[in-house]
Amino acid sequence: VQRTILENAAHHRAKAKPGSIEQKIGYLYQSGMDEAAIAKAGLAPIKPRLAQIAALRDSDDVVRYIRDSHAQGEPVLFRFGGNADFKDSNRQIAYASQGGLGLPTADYYRKPEQAAIRSAYVKHIARLFELTGTASADAQRQATAVLAFETRLAAASLVPVQLRQPENRYHYVSLAEADKVTPSFDWAAFFKTQNANVSDGFSLSQPKFFAEVQQMLGDEPVATWQAYLRYHAIDNAAPYLSTPFQQADFAFHEQALNGQKDIKPRWKRVLEATNDAMGMALGQLYVADHFSPVAKQRAQQLVDNLRAAFRTRIEQLPWMSDATKQKGLQK
Fold first, then answer.
1. Fewest Cβ atoms closer than 10 Å to its Cβ: which of 17, 60, 125, 281?
2. What is the mean pLDDT of the chain?
3. How far is CA 170 from the centre of its chain?
4. How far apart are CA 220 and CA 205, in angstroms?
C-alpha cells in the first residue's frame, strides 16, 4: 500500500501543489528510484564533505567540523538530542552521549570472539576509501588507523547493559563544568550552532567518554582524525550513492553483521528511506487513502471499550485503597 502511494506521488509530482506533502514525497521517492542519475553522480554528492575534511589542519579545525556536522543534522563522534529530564519530567533538556563507533557496541572492539568482525570491518573501511580514489595500500593503512581510533573510543564507552542503569545516562552539568571535561571543545559554541538555549545546563551523560575525546583531540594526529571523519562521511552516504557503494554497505552492515543473504529490492530501500525522512507525512497520505471514517469510528470504539474495561478492573481490585483507585482512574 505504501509503495502504491509513493509511486502515485512520484508520477504526479510535477503537477502536485508546490510545497505540498504529495510533491515533496513524490520528488524524494523518485530521486531514490532514479538509478541512472545516481550512477551518473557517482561520488559527487559527498565531494564537498570530503573536501572539508581534507582541509582540516589542527584540532581546532576538527572541533569546528564536528560542531558544524551536528548543526547540519549529520552527527559525528557523539550523540546529541533532547529528552525529558530524568529528575524532572516536566521539562526537556539536552543530552550529549557517547557514540562514534562503527561497530554495534564497545564489546566488538575487545572480545576475542569478534576478531573476524573486526577484520571484516577493516576491509570494509578500506574498500570505501578505495571507492573514493585512495590507493589500496594507503586505504589499508587508514582503515587500520580508524579501527585503532575507534578502539580507543570503545575503551571509554559503556556497554548496553551498563547504559540500562539511569545513573550512567545522566550527568547534569553547567556549560562551565562541561568545558572543564573538554577544554578543547567549546560547548557554548556548539549549542549556539544548534540554536539551543542551555543556559541552565545539560546532561554530559558519560563524562569518561568525553574526557577521552579531550585526550584524543590533543594526542591523535590530525591525519588520523581525518581518516576517521572521512570514513564515517562515506559510510553514512554509501546506501544512497552509486551501486558499488551500496554493495559495499550491504556486504558489511547487512551481510557480515546481520547475516542478511540478499540485498532488498531498491523500492523497499527507498521506501524505508522515505519513512525515515518523511514518515509522518507518508502516514498522513496513508490515512487519507486507507483509513475511512468508519474505520476510525471502530478504532475509537475499541479504545473506549479498553478504557471501560480498565475502569471496571480498577474499581474491583480488592487490594487497592480508594484513594489509589481514584489516582488510577485519573490516569
1. 17
2. 96
3. 20
4. 23
